[in-house]
TrEMBL record:
Any one Gene Ontology molecular-function term assigned to this protein's record: FMN binding
Domain of life: Bacteria
The protein's name: Flavin reductase like domain-containing protein
UniProt domain Flavin reductase like: residue ranges: 1-110
Length: 146
C-alpha cells in the first residue's frame, strides 16, 4: 500500500477519482527539471509528458503510463480518497489518496545481487519547502542492526 497527500484538489486527485489508476515514477536527480515542469498548475487538457519532454513507459496492470527512464515505477490503483477535516470536523483543502501497488518496474542498473539499490537510482525527495529537495546517494547510507 502507498499513500500521498495533495494540498488542493489538483488534476492528480481528479484523474485518480476518474480512472482509479496512477503510476508513481521515482525521480532521479537527472530528471528533476522535467519533474518540476509537471508540478505546474496546468490546464486539464495539457499533456504533462509533452510539456516536460519525457516519454511514457507502458504499464502492465493499470490504464495509465509511467515515465520512461524512471529507476522505479509503481503501478497503483486507488483504494480510497479522503478529504481531510480539522479538529472541528470542517473540511480542509487537503486530500489523501490510499492505493494498492499492482506492479513494479525497476531499472536493472539499480539492482545488485537481486536487491534494488536505492543509492544507484539517485532519487530525489521534497525537503518540506516548495523549492528544497534532497538526493539519496551512497554516501548517505548507514546501517542499523535490528
Amino acid at each position: 500500500m502507498v499513500m500521498f497527500s495533495s494540498v488542493g484538489y489538483k488534476d492528480t486527485v481528479r484523474n485518480i477519482e476518474e480512472s482509479k489508476d496512477f503510476a508513481i515514477s521515482i525521480v532521479s536527480h537527472s530528471q528533476a527539471d522535467a519533474m518540476n515542469i509537471t508540478s505546474d498548475a496546468l490546464p486539464h487538457e495539457d499533456d504533462e509528458f509533452v510539456l516536460a519532454g519525457v516519454d511514457s513507459h507502458p504499464s502492465t496492470q493499470i490504464s495509465v503510463p509511467g515515465v520512461l527512464g524512471s529507476p522505479a515505477i509503481l503501478e497503483c490503483r486507488s483504494v480510497s480518497i479522503n478529504r481531510l477535516q480539522d479538529l472541528q470536523g470542517c473540511p480542509i483543502d487537503t486530500w489523501v489518496v490510499f492505493a494498492q501497488i499492482l506492479a513494479v518496474s525497476l531499472d536493472k542498473n539499480c539492482i545488485e545481487e537481486g536487491l534494488f539499490r536505492t543509492e544507484l537510482a539517485n532519487p530525489i525527495s521534497r525537503a518540506g519547502y516548495a523549492d528544497e529537495y534532497w538526493e539519496t546517494t551512497a554516501s548517505g547510507k548507514f546501517l542499523l542492526s535490528r
